């Protein structure tokens, strides 16, 4: 499966990594806010460390700093790495397959926070009241030194582990930063409640990872859930930053690219309601509220793990627009992606817009507005095309893995769903349809025997 995402990085891009690593931070200090003496905390997300955070308590709330690695400064527009990143569009991690948008060495040594190293950044400061409402925003180019890079699993163990000796050791390791981490948790919980009140559903992050035998054959698809509280905390700040900046730039009439997402198809919402016996389903209710209520019921029931995976699978792919459109999957109506420029080319483009806004002294009169409008529309169209390609790649990988699974096993467990066809649901969230209907109760656990290879086929519900 040869695509722009699977091609090896060119020699020019590899050479650019070496040059970027030699950038002299001292040359930028006179033109940027120096935050090297501030307590800025970064988190390691499977090798991605492109965003860091600072926080303090104020008289009526919090002052949150979000410090995004200035990838644009390391990846000039039109440079070899920029061209390849644009072709690849995003970092891809699906069914155990990882394809990077940037050369791995670029991510590790240049566009990531490393403990004690100075990095160029774009810093956004938010004054937030105790109810999670942003009262003021300030954006600066900066130089940041993160004294600590937190490991998600270790932070979670501090708060959740029953291993006393482990907790003591980790508290010693992070002792200087636990007050700030506590504040980050406090604020993220408040921000999450704000989104929930606006219709955001409670989701977990699911993926299906192939389980292979010694011969490399797929013998199962294991459902994997990301339950790291610290990761969810950081995600909350990503969403808050994207929404607040989106509203800010929309209020200034500065054209940017918004990330949107529609609700699950109403017919599929009705099917899910039937599966879980949700008697309060109302077809006249707005779809986003139905989606929120069903998600709430599914994710609070530990026995519905496979339905939770299917629920997430049914959420439509995001799309891009040059004007604000709702992102119903996260309860946001002005979502501007920008916090993770090592993962998405969208974020690199948005960072460039933010920096140009800073250089214009935050005045629309200093900007060629028509050029920005044309660029926003062109990038939205381009990103939608790339997103469609990514969606098709995911479908192809999943179909291949499911077909291989059917060839390698004689039976597997599933749940009977019924419906207009005899649907079944695997633990990984994949849907199949049986050749004959056993007419059982919904969510009855069954064993599908593949004595006849036509017993079932995988399908989209």
Mind explaining what this structure looks like?
Helix content is 39%, strand content 23%. It has 13 helices and 18 strands. Strands 1-8-7-4-3-2-9 form a 7-stranded mixed β-sheet. The longest helix has 40 residues, at 369-408. The protein starts with 10 loop residues before the first helix and ends with a strand.
Summarize the structure.
39% of the residues lie in helices and 23% in strands.
Gross geometry: globular
Estimate what percentage of residues fall within beta strands: 15-25%
Mean pLDDT: 88
Distance between the termini: 26 Å
Oligomer: single chain
Number of helical elements: 13
Low-confidence stretches: none
Helix and strand composition category: alpha+beta
Enumerate the strands of the largest sheet in spatial order, edge to edge or round the barrel: 1-8-7-4-3-2-9
Write the layout of secondary structure elements.
Layout: H1 11-20, E1 33-34, E2 41-44, E3 51-58, E4 61-69, H2 71-74, H3 80-88, E5 92-94, E6 97-99, H4 104-109, E7 118-129, E8 134-145, E9 148-151, H5 152-160, H6 164-173, H7 178-197, E10 205-212, E11 218-226, H8 229-251, E12 258-260, H9 266-275, H10 287-299, H11 305-314, E13 319-321, H12 345-359, H13 369-408, E14 411-418, E15 423-425, E16 431-434, E17 444-449, E18 456-459
Helix pairs in contact: 5-6, 7-8, 9-10
Give keywords.
alpha+beta; 13 helices; single chain; 7-stranded mixed β-sheet; 5-stranded antiparallel β-sheet; 23% strand
